Amino acid sequence: MIGVITGWDVLAHPVVTVRCFGWRVFFKAVTPWQGGTFLSLLRWQASPKTAMASMPTIIERCILLELRAKRIYAALAKALSDQGPVGPFFAAMASQEQDHADLLDVARHAAIRGGFRATLFNPWQDYLPRLEQQMEAAEASVAQIDSIEAALRLTIQIESSEINQVFPAAITATDSRFVKRLKPFRKAMESHISYIVERIPQISPSLMLMTRELRAKFSGIRTEA
Length: 225
What we know:
The chain is mostly helical. It is 75% helix and 0% strand.
């Protein structure tokens, strides 16, 4: 199985997978010739009622934030495609944001079955409207980006926001051992920040200090088991 959650991830945690999604999903996920993603499998097997369920809306709002970040980075990748390593950097960033959105969508499916402890997300609840406004403004500003450094500064601005805190908060609040146990959920933010901190100074050494501050801000970020 391809995608951010692979058949090997599922095989590593068979019990929690079966308890959360059932034997049918488990067997299809680990079938060697299964070519889809785990998320597409969940969407395929879901009943219309489950597929259309809006609970929990918190996760849905977090998904939309990740997809907005993806659009920003995809637009920058296209605009800067002829600027050496810059285009591939933003293409990779767009791909990572899609991965985050997919992970949150899997968590949404798990929450529909197992529940969502909204009280655990409460400290971040008030940040969502402001963060949504900030991301909307960031997306609108992409057309005015006129240099590589400006694009990278916008990236640091986005990644320094609460977007990288609401993701693990939503994961933590999802009442599912599947979501808590699988490595892609636990390592997503750590890998994302590490990639940014490593690559941006290689492209623009003058931004080294800003990336160090980004690293320091998220040095303790993790998803609780």
